[in-house]
Amino acid sequence: PGGANPLDTMNAAFSPKAPTLDPAKVMDAQMALWRDYQALWLNTTARLMNDEAEPVVKPAPGDTRFRDKAWSENPVFDFLKQSYLLNARWVESMLAQMEGLDVHSRRKVDFLGRQIVDALAPTNFALTNPVVLKEIAETKGENLTRGLANLMADMKDGRHALRPRQTDMDAFEVGVNIATSPGSVIFQNPFMQLIQYAPTTDRVFKKPLLIVPPWINKFYILDLGAENSFIRWIVEQGYTVFVVSWVNPDESFAEMGFDEYAEGGIYAALDAIEKATGERNVTAIGYCIGGTLLAAVLARMAATGDARIDAVAFFAAQADFEEAGELRVFTDADTLRALRPKVESQGYLDDAAMATTFNALRANDLIWYFVVNNYLMGKQPPVFDLLFWNADSTRFPARLFFDYIEKLYQDNLLAKPGGMELLGTPVDLSKIRIPMYIQASKDDHIAPVTSVFRMMKLFS
């Protein structure tokens, strides 16, 4: 209430140029669909007569929507499933044959097509989902009553169908059962708090480790629980660890950009670490957008003779945005033009708008699973630390947001020697000559492997 409409981010993204279709290719696609349906009808008829029949089409590996055995054992629901998959394949083939689209418009059309296909899956409707029908029968419809209550509660909290509750937000408390590694805030300024974690070994490494996470997420992605905490593990290896915990910005940060975040974040952290430990040199980790900022800072340090960071690891970070994945759908000039008035009036991009965008990139996992679970099955979302962190989102300062999209996603300036300035100094990533470890996650949809790998060509 009172904030940006999260759907504006999605609505603004779609204004592709008018495409054309080759009538011959349309006819071929229609005939292929007709042949597939003939095979499906024969398949279903055989199943109804208790004969064995191989499916005409199967869900893709990793598609968990149809994992309940009723989707395969019941001929009616098996028909619904295969019919949907055939139609989805037909839509994808038709979109792929569109002509007259530039690369960006094609990306938009493919993305929007997938959103429609995912939304129309039979799993998302009570009368075509055998799991939901079974629940209705067993609870005498109570699940739908509970689901309506869940929906009303979400709407009361300012949520909507594209941003259902993903976990019980009351099940976790930072510092109590999540982010529990012992640490102390040893420095803070308007941009961040710097948290120090002491090593738990007798012998410790001389150089501290500085971790720079993204400013659009909370730092404790690296410290979820005792069994999956990177911070807990790294102090057990003998490192003194410092983690930047970025502020959740408000309208007062409207004019803050890369310079301010570099100076108030990474440079300030280096000064505070030296004051706290007496050590001038550190190793560093840059995670996601934090890694992008760290890369720019390292290039500036190389240009100014500052050698305080003498080894670095990047976790799912990008410095070359040429192949930056599906998030590029939301980064074109039309989208920014539509977003600019509201973002500039608020002074930041609303966290709900970012959450909606990220959810849409993996709609089946982050939207429709919870629509079915919360609203149709009437269940509470699972208690899951990663989803609690995912829902604990933050805002993006206006100037920093537009600079980030325009300079990196649109113009890819950081990848061009001297293309971007930081604190008045042109930066050139090829001047960075320190040991470096670059990690990518194979299923990452924000920082795809192909995009992260392009960093290999940028550094020396």
Shape: globular
What does the radius of gyration come to? Answer: 25 Å
**Poorly predicted spans:** none
Give the rounded overall mean pLDDT: 91
Largest sheet: 7 strands, mixed
Describe the structure.
With 460 residues, the protein is of the alpha/beta class. The chain has helices spanning 6-11, 23-48, 70-73, 75-96, 103-119, 130-139, 142-156, 230-235, 258-277, 289-304, 333-346, 351-361, 363-376, 385-391, 398-410, 449-453; strands at residues 184-188, 192-197, 209-212, 241-246, 282-287, 309-315, 348-349, 396-397, 420-422, 425-427, 436-439. The strands form three sheets. A seven-stranded mixed sheet has the order 1-2-4-3-5-6-11. Helix 4 packs antiparallel against helix 5 (103-119), helix 7 packs across helix 13 (363-376) and helix 11 packs antiparallel against helix 15 (398-410). It is globular, with a radius of gyration of 25 Å.
Keywords:
460 residues, alpha/beta, seven-stranded mixed beta sheet, 45% helix, 10% strand, globular
